[in-house]
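User: Quick one: structure for sequence A, then sequence B.

Assistant: Sequence A:
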Amino acid sequence: MKSTYRDWLEQQQYSAGTIQAQVHRAGRVEKHYGDLDEHYDRDVLQSVIDELQYTAEDERRNLPNPSKIPFNGDIRSNLASYRNAAERYCRFRREEFEPSTRDPVDEALNKADYGRGHLVGLERDLQAALRRSIEQLEPGLEIIDDGAERSVGSGFIDITARDLEGAIVVIELKSGTARQAAVAQILSYMGDVADEEPDDSVRGVLVAGDFDRKTRAAARMVPTLSLRSYRINFEFKAIDGAS
């Protein structure tokens, strides 16, 4: 495991506890499966990730832990944590060579939004702020992803929470104006979670600075998806000795 992994986690603005947990879990996977970078170079860690799968059906059939990692407690939740750690390390390795994954068209549109006075920021800054005060989005929400994006088949969910009724809430964040593709993205995440958690109801919240007409129209047809806009408040204070 590369020494720069911790630096990358810090750049994602994860909390110190989350960073420590992610490094620890990746280290456990490496201890029992061998060098993560060799696995990445061989098959992008896919063979390891496949061994860390444990479905709801596996749980119902009371199947034993299929992995090489020994642990006590719930098999499904433990393996999900180790699988997410392996998938997050893959993301780190990929972004080493492709540091900019933002769509250049979206980037240009977001800059234009900023020029029109919309308050936009990097999605990871928005995520860090929302994680610190999730109840501002909706009273009673509880984050259930251990402080880092949950990995599902179609990507990484920005924040996964549970509401007062017990439903899993998939939260996707967009800086600037969200467009039609954002609806397809969050619906894919919701579908993956529904497959992984068949006994739970799932809904989604798309958070952005604004939403274009097509996004609003698409969201109106999905009862389990809601839209929320954000604004940033600036505070100014005098610095001693400065006029």
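Sequence B:
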Amino acid sequence: MEQNAPAQRPVALVVGASRGLGLIIAHELAARGHDVAVCARDEESLARAADELRLRHGVRVHHQVCDVRDATQVQRLVTGTEEALGPIDVSISVAGIIQVGPLEAVQEHHFRDAIDIMLWGQIHVALAVIPGMRERNRGRIGIVTSIGGRISPPRMVPYSTAKHGAIGFAEGIAAELGGTGVTVTTLVPGLMRTGSPKQASFFGDAGKQYAWFGPAASLPLLSIDAERAARIMVDGVLRGKPVTTVSPLAHVASRVHGLAPGTTVRMMRLVSRLLPKGANSQTVSGEQARADLKDPRLVDLLTTLGDRAGKRFNQE
């Protein structure tokens, strides 16, 4: 008597998964029994992430270089994933960049880079996976935005501009897809300990900008453990929740802004006056900005947890 073939694992696509939050989400999905497709722009770090996923979880992994700014590349990614693994059941788009600097040093290319990756990138991925999901009457889409898409913090205007757009897009298509079997979850994290400041971009007085942002993204009271954040986000997507807000601080900030938006803006004005300024528009990496600090000992101490996370999540 013939034995039944093993059940096909569900297939998850994680966009922007060579390191940091995207890689952690890919691990979370693989641990829950999904075959996983991952993409990023850098082949070397992407291949390393894919090997790590295979070895740790024993699932099928497809990796493909893709620049989410290019709709054609995104469509090839979706086609390649389905040819290698099967129909995509879950798509979570994480690709993003972090730019930190004062308004007087912001240039148009800062906005263009942020919007092309974190808004157009989300649009390209969603529009590529939705037709197949609608045809199958099932699918889960997660779009990673940010609390910076609810409240615009100072020194991160291009970032917040893109994230506000991503929230509007995610909530809009969630409504449009009602009744189709396809759900869209707007994922709204606050600061997470992923080690991302070293990969971020800084301008103005880059060293001073890093000196506040690096610790903020590392200290427990201000940031959340990245693996815990990934579990919350994956839970929200798989359950088809419309919105999943991650971290207590993000919940509080969202509610305060909803109740008193004018007060929130005034608070951000006060914060802006306390943060460093600078008109130098030259952009440097977080690693370089940190190296340029005259005395980095305090910053090194305050970013200890973030540095450890960076080593674990392929940020080095």
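The first helix runs from residue 20 to 31. The CA atoms of residues 245 and 251 lie 6 Å apart.

User: Thanks, that's what I needed.
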